[in-house]
Design brief:
44% of the residues lie in helices and 17% in strands. The chain is of the alpha+beta class. It has a 6-stranded antiparallel β-sheet with strand order 3-2-1-6-5-4, covered by helices on one side.
């Protein structure tokens, strides 16, 4: 083979290798760019979903506060004002506030009142069976150590997800001592989800970490405990 052809071959192989390298680098850079864009989009969607849930919880919390910091509630808890439930927690309260349950408990954990309500049928029901394990004497829902205490969030019950808010029972001016706890809950059912989906323009669903249909990556990340609490984002094929 002549020197000229050897030169041509060397130059040709060099050009092919250079083009291949450029293609690999370009693809890597583009994929990283797409991944960043997709991650940013998912994070924005998570933020919208969180904001919508927080608005629901803020509304529920305002209702709880109005009843928790009230002399009439204190009087009922202390054995007075026995007409309190009929006067203040009638069917119209539940339908008007879109609340599915109310629990009033004393500091020792004993329940002064517990009532469930079906907003679809507008009828009183028993409390969700799954709630009982969260109403023990040491439950954070019942333990308020200061007038500023509050526990609010999403409770995954066997019957379904529920927005829950618990606040200390205080005098009308928000003054202590803490007499007990007032808990209110609202089912996050299909109708409520539909409203949130319409508001956020997202398809939403809520699963406990123990759910069989939970993606393996999510379960593993939760078990590892090394992911940010805000959200875990993964690509599923």
């Amino acid at each position: 083979m002549s020197l000229r052809w050897k030169t041509y071959l060397i130059v040709g192989f060099t050009l092919i290798a250079a083009v291949a390298a450029i293609l690999v680098v370009s693809q890597t850079v583009l994929m990283r760019g797409f991944t960043k864009v997709e991650t940013a989009e998912v994070q924005e969607e998570v933020a919208r979903a969180k904001a919508a849930l927080n608005r629901e919880l803020t509304e529920l919390s305002a209702t709880v506060y109005g009843y928790a910091s009230w002399d009439d509630t204190v009087a009922f808890l202390e054995g007075q004002n026995q007409a309190y439930p009929e006067t203040n927690l009638s069917d119209s309260f539940f339908t008007g506030s879109a609340v599915n349950l109310v629990v009033l408990a004393r500091n020792d954990g004993t329940m002064a009142l517990g009532r469930g309500f079906d907003l679809k049928t507008a009828k009183t029901t028993s409390l969700p069976v799954g709630l009982s394990e969260y109403l023990g004497t040491e439950s954070p829902l019942l333990k308020h150590t200061s007038v500023d205490s509050r526990l609010s969030g999403l409770l995954m019950l066997p019957e379904g997800p529920m927005l829950i808010d618990s606040q200390p029972i205080l005098a009308s001016k928000g003054e202590g001592p803490v007499r007990g706890a007032l808990i209110m809950g609202r089912w996050l059912d299909a109708a409520q989800l539909a409203e949130l989906e319409n508001e956020t323009r997202l398809s939403l669903g809520f699963l406990p970490l123990s759910a069989e249909e939970l993606p393996a990556e999510v379960g593993q990340a939760a078990a590892a405990g090394d992911r940010p609490a805000e959200a875990f984002i993964a690509a599923f094929g």
